[in-house]
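Appendix B. Raw example, untouched.
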Amino acid sequence: MDADTLKGIQGPLKAQYKDDPASAVVTLKADGELDGTGIACRVTTATALVEAGLHPATGGDGMQLCSGDMLLEALVACAGVTMRAVATSLGIDVAGTLHAEGDLDFRGTLGVDKEAPVGFRDIRLTFDLDTTADADQVATLMKLTERYCVVLQTLVNSPSTAVNVRTPESTSA
């Protein structure tokens, strides 16, 4: 895809969102089904059904996806797509790889140490770029990629998150 094609696709959307800001707010959804036979959750994606389970550091056998890995994969996917869109818009030829890694202290999630955090302590996202762009162009590319990457911005600026539960008893009242 070239810059003109991308602008042709995104232009009408940008105009619509400018004229009608409410139309820009879209609720994305994810659904899962608890596995009745094991410690797993089946998650429906746009193209497949995946099964998440325990990480080996918490007793899993490594045969199922780990939700922590999935979070890092979502970060890499979003950052990669965002960078390609920004590069296309700027007319920058870029290829390469992305790598995300995060540090977890599994004492927290296993309840071994109440002081140990549950969740990632640190996440690092690395871009190994193959480009002929100069340093200023790469800086602009990175600045815009970071600014517009939904997953990265969500992690950096944690939104308020609500947790709700519904049971047959609570929905019949």
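End of appendix B.
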